[in-house]
Amino acid sequence: MSDRLDWNALRERRMAEPGAAETYEATRIAFELGQEVRHLREGYGWS
Questions:
Q1: Is the pLDDT of residue 40 over 90?
Q2: Nearest by Cα to 14 from 28, 26, 24
Q3: What's the pLDDT score for residue 47?
Q4: Could you give the C-alpha distances from 19 to 22, 31, 35, 39, 45, in angstroms and in order?
Q5: How many angstroms separate the first and last alpha carbons of the chain?
Q6: CB within 8 Å of 21: residues ≥ 6 apart
Q7: Quick check: 1 pLDDT over 90?
Q8: Could you give the CA distance from residue 19 to residue 26 in angstroms, rounded to a whole number?
Q9: Calpha distance 20→25 (Å, rounded)
Q10: What is the model's pTM?
Q11: How many Å is the maximal CA-CA distance in the chain?
């Protein structure tokens, strides 16, 4: 369980850095777009 606490502390420290929240949001949007593209490709039988 101490690993989880260490991970949470590391995440909090990294998210407090300048620009981290904006970078996280941009990455989240890109990931969701990729998921949707994959879903559409699979729907058309392209993947």
A1: yes
A2: 24
A3: 74
A4: 5, 18, 24, 30, 39
A5: 40
A6: 15
A7: no
A8: 11
A9: 9
A10: 0.70
A11: 46
Burial letters for 36-46: b for 16+ Cβ neighbours within 10 Å, e otherwise? eeeeeeeeeee
DSSP assignment of 8-39, as one string? Answer: HHHHHHHHTSTTHHHHHHHHHHHHHHHHHHHH
| Dist CA 41 CA 18 (whole Å) | 36
The CB-side HSE value for 27 (13 A sphere, CA atoms) comes to 6
Rounded to whole angstroms, what are the CA distances from 30 to 14, 23, 36, 38, 41? Answer: 20, 11, 10, 12, 16
pLDDT digits (tens, 9 = 90+) for 2-32: 666 789 999 999 999 999 999 999 999 999 9
